[in-house]
Amino acid sequence: MGEIMPLLLLLLCNYLFLAKAATSNGDFIGLKALMDSWQNTPPNWVGSDPCDGWDGIKCSNSRVTSITLSSTGLTGELSGDVGSLSELETLDLSYNKDITGPLPQAIGNLKKLSTLILVGCGFNGPIPDEIGNLQELVYLSLNSNNFNGQIPASIGNLSKLYWLDLAENQLNGPIPVSNGSIPGLDKLLHAKHFHLGQNKLSGIIPQQLFSSEMALIHVLFEGNQLRGSIPSSLGLVTTLEVVRLDGNMLSASVPQNLNNLTKLHDLFLSNNKLSGSLPNLTGMSSLNYLDMSNNSFVPTDFPPWFLTLESLTTLVMENTQLQGQIPTSLFSLGYLQTLMLKGNKLNGTLDIGTADGNHLRRIDLESNLIGDFKQVGVSDVQVILKDNPICYETGEDKTYCSVLQPNSSYTTPPKNCLPSTCSSDQISSPNCECAYPYTGTFIFRSPSFSDLGNETYYVSLEESLMHSFQSHNLPVDSVSLSNATKNAVQYLELSLQVFPSNQDHFNRTGISSVGFVLSNQTFKPQPIFGPFYFDGEAYQHFGDNGHRESKKSRNIGIIIGAAVGGSVLLVLLLLAGVYAFCQKKRAEKALEQSNPFRRWDSRESHNSIPQLQGARVFSFEELQKSTKNFSQDNDVGSGGYGKVYRGKLPNGQLIAIKRAHIETMQGALQFKAEIELLSRVHHTNLVRLIGFCFDQGEQMLVYEYVPNGTLKDAISGKSGIRLDWVRRLKIALGAAKGLAYLHELANPPIIHRDIKTTNILLDERMNAKVADFGLSKPMVDTEKDHITTQVKGTMGYLDPEYYMSQQLTEKSDVYSFGVVMLELITAKKPLDRGKYIVIEIKNVIDQTKDLYGLHEIVDPVIGLGTNTKGFEKFVDIAMSCVQESGADRPSMSYVVREIENMLQQARSNTTFESPTTSSSYDDISKGSYRHPYITESPDLNAALPYPKIEPM
Ligand SMILES: *[C@@H]1O[C@H](CO)[C@@H](O)[C@H](O)[C@H]1NC(C)=O
Ligand SMILES: *[C@@H]1O[C@H](CO)[C@@H](O)[C@H](O)[C@H]1NC(C)=O
Ligand SMILES: *[C@@H]1O[C@H](CO)[C@@H](O)[C@H](O)[C@H]1NC(C)=O
Ligand SMILES: *[C@@H]1O[C@H](CO)[C@@H](O)[C@H](O)[C@H]1NC(C)=O
Ligand SMILES: *[C@@H]1O[C@H](CO)[C@@H](O)[C@H](O)[C@H]1NC(C)=O
Questions:
Q1: Is 754 annotated in the active site?
Q2: 448-462, 554-568, 610-624, 645-659: which is most confident
Q3: Domain map (residue ranges) of the chain
Q4: Is the overall model pTM greater than 0.70, yes or no?
Q5: Per-residue pLDDT tens for 769-779?
Q6: Which residues contact 332 (CB under 8 A, 6 or more apart)?
Q7: Catalytic: which of 291, 754, 799, 859?
Q8: Higher pLDDT among residues 567 and 431, named by residue
Q9: What span, in angstroms and rounded, lies between the C-alpha atoms of 98 and 116?
Q10: Which of 223, 273, 362, 781 has its CA 20 to 30 A from that of 901?
Q11: How many angstroms separate the CA atoms of 875 and 842, rounded?
């Protein structure tokens, strides 16, 4: 017995480490030839045994069966010697943009090849006919290269083909169909995907191409030069889910039997020359996305069958000769998100009913004949009626008369952690680890949705990605999505960052495995995302030295294991276990130390990891360096809390650092609450928090540097900037937008509590930025309409109602803003030698007179000239803001809209005839001018990095 144990272990050891025989000589020579025709091959491609752990190579029985080298930065050509790897089943060289030259004919020798993926490389020349010899081929992805010439008819021989993607090349000529002994794509009865978009294919789409025996789900022919009519045979392929024929030169009428495609989600027929009447698509009961824009259909009334498409999320019918009234019931389609009906002749009243509580976000009716607009209730649907009769008359409230691009600015937020300050080009992952992510772009060629502002889609994509990586045991820590945009051909593009786990970079095997999951369609997002491809970037951060060493040590391990036997193996295993354990402990410790809030985590609060969005953590040394040791020169101001320093980061960015005095330092919890609040507030008209320092007993907030000083200095002439009327309006507008954002869009809403001209800063283009949230209060849900607090603020700006009742509402800010408006007109301090600006103006104002009789009190620098109506309106608004009762004051978004109109009028210098011009502030304050359909000026959203900030 005693003899047998070590023997068994030795056998096991041999089995584990020595059983691999050397790679077949033929395969080694073949791979060596590939290696010689490339630069940048993996550094561990040395020796004569590729099957022994060469990166990207997998073998079976000493034969090379798989080469996967996506995103590894290979350059050069693919040698014809690849044809000697006759057992090869998988070849993936995706995302190596510098692999150029032709695809060699010898590729046809790879009789076992089932997966050929060359996405996003630089291949050019024709696709060789020999590709048709690959009888086992299932995946053929040659998209996003520079292939030219015709689609080889021989592809029709690939009877096992499931996936055919030749999109985004320079392919020309016709789509091949069979003819006698000549094969064609019509023979691909197992194929589910024909992705041929964005080429130069010409000729007709042959009737013969489609038949009821096919299994196609995605037919993507968009962006070619195809002519003739849409073949009615398409209607026979009832498995179809996505059809894109847009951007061709297709003509004649749409075949009626397309209506048989009851599984179709997405149909794009736009940008063709289709004629005849609009097809009746009432049978497409699954249709989500329909785009038939820019065709030559005969003029028609709004077809009632649209109303039967109950799954519709998106209807795009631009320039399609639609006329008459839009039925109100259209707007109550349960899933509708976007209606794009630009350039038609739709008329009458736009009545969107109670488009409330459903998913409708955008109705674009630019250039129609709409004369009136009705809406019941408030919703956040954006309506565009530019170039309609309703917008011809000036004086109407104009939000819907302009076009604002929808924006989506989702970025995966940190997951309950503080983003780390990372060195050089590392990036803080969603789990707040610094690392070099693998990056690239998802391109979804036909998503079934159009509301890019809905986070749900991104969150589900993140989850399914992580699930996919984890189920393949890939070393992925987390993924981050950002920058969702629709490109010119209506593909949804989305940036992806994939972060490595356990170390700060991926090795080559990690990258090629992650790349393969994305290139090979192993990853399947939810069907609503539709067909996609991924375009990866070359990864730059393999730690290749480390890699070589680890290989060496493994070899040593093998030798020792083989020579000394099982007991040593056991010891080694034990040591490995101990090592792993120690590493884990070390990692945990490092994590703890990188969190500046660790000290109060355990003691003071249960879930107190600060939730910061986009704010950096600075060390004391960093800020010390950026301010030249807090030098006198860099001291740019001070206040009750401490001093403000100007600083410069190593990347050249200027910052303003607010450094708290010892006496004014808050408890850690309070400081944490403040930075959490500030980091969640993002708007162009609010001074942006860049980060903070909570280190060596200091509490510092780091803001963007705003160069032109305070509004007070500008008004008083101290800063030497002349403020004419338009500039004053612009500044008032900016500050009002910042406040409106705090009140109405921040979540939870925030009351500033200290609005005054010294807290409004001016940037290099004289845009106003509201600063100093030191006294700000979030409105917490439980205290819906007011907060009872100790009264804080600045005399002269302080809301008397708040002062007396101690009940704070956002209307207190409105009051202070009214005082700022009066200061803008008069350049007088609000409280000056016992005179209070609000009372002073109330005493002299006379609405029957020119300039309301305020000539004496107006700042002469304004230079009002003859155009005084805007001025009077401005006074009206200011006076409504300083009404005694908060309930009588307007909301900030109302103020924003009014100043916007004034600014527009002041700039165009035309006479402004608003229905409200002649009324006094008393009327305004009754609230009777609030339009129900205006929730906010849409460009308030412009700088919002997150569509919606969720409460903590
Ligand atoms: C498809 O549509 C055509 C005409 O629209 C109709 O005659 C035919 O029966 C339909 N086929 C199926 C399978 O439903
Ligand atoms: C559209 O087709 C459906 C059935 O296919 C029919 O009931 C309906 O009347 C048609 N509508 C129009 C406007 O032709
Ligand atoms: C709207 O257009 C239709 C068809 O062009 C026309 O018959 C109708 O009179 C128009 N209605 C209005 C209110 O202009
Ligand atoms: C976002 O999308 C999801 C899934 O389609 C939906 O359930 C949810 O209601 C949407 N949210 C909004 C605000 O439209
Ligand atoms: C997102 O877009 C911005 C601006 O185009 C760019 O600077 C940034 O790098 C992009 N982010 C990612 C992760 O690609």
A1: yes
A2: 448-462
A3: 427-536, 610-705, 709-942
A4: no
A5: 998 765 566 65
A6: 353, 354, 355, 358
A7: 754
A8: 431
A9: 18
A10: 362
A11: 11
